Every structure is written in C-alpha cells, then in structure tokens.
Amino acid sequence: MLSIFETIMLLCFGSAWPFSIYSSYKARTAKGKSLFFLVVLLIGYLSGILHKMIYSFDYVIILYILNFCLIAVDTGLYFRNKRLDTLRNIE
Questions:
Q1: Spatial distance between the Cα atoms of 23 and 15, rounded to a whole number of angstroms
Q2: Which residues, other chains included, contact 20 with Cβ-Cβ below 8 Å and sequence gap of 6+?
Q3: CA-CA distance, 42 to 72, in Å (whole number)?
Q4: What is the DSSP letter of 19?
Q5: Which of 29, 47, 61, 80 is an S-S bond match for 52, by CB 3.0 to 4.6 Å?
Q6: Domain residue extents for the chain
C-alpha cells in the first residue's frame, strides 16, 4: 500500500537538494559541507531503497532513488570542490 505520508516526507526532503546542488556548484568550495553528513544520507536512502525492494515494493521507491541520486551529485560536487580548495591552497 502506498503511504501518502512517506511520499510527502520524501518530496519535502528531495525538494531541498536541487538548491544544495546549485549552491555547491556555484560556491566552488567544500567549506561548510560535511562529507560525513552526505554519506550518512546516502546510506539512509540506500537502506530505504533496499527495504522497498525486499519488503514493500511500491512506486515510492522512485522518490528514494531520485533523492539518492541528488545526494550522490552533491557528494560528487563536494569532491570536486575539495580538489579546487586544495589547488587554491597550493598556488
């Protein structure tokens, strides 16, 4: 059975990530970002995806996958920005 509350929660959490991605892209620095936080979120969403696949498959899994992908992009930008920070410190 599709949970409306789970769907709303995932939509609310997911709506913040495009702004975070944009900010990370424009800032070009990893300052203010926590890799630990991003990894914890990735693990949490991966757990939600696995739960949906194993125990209660429904279309909400799409939101889990979308959120996971958005956080993965932000994590990738973290590593790009960390490299840019290092390059700025070397020069």
A1: 14
A2: 74
A3: 7
A4: H
A5: 61
A6: 34-83
Among 68, 74, 40, 36, residue whose Cα is nearest residue 53 = 68
In DSSP notation, 57-88 reads --TTHHHHHHHHHHHHHHHHHHHHHHHHHHHH
What pTM does this model have? 0.92
What are the CA-CA distances from residue 59 to residues 44, 49, 63 (Å)?
A: 18, 11, 8
Spatial contact of 17 and 70, defined as CB atoms under 8 Å apart? yes
- The answer to whether the CB of 51 falls within 8 A of the CB of 35 is no
DSSP state of 29: -
Contact assessment for residue 14 and residue 68, using Cβ atoms and an 8 Å cutoff: no
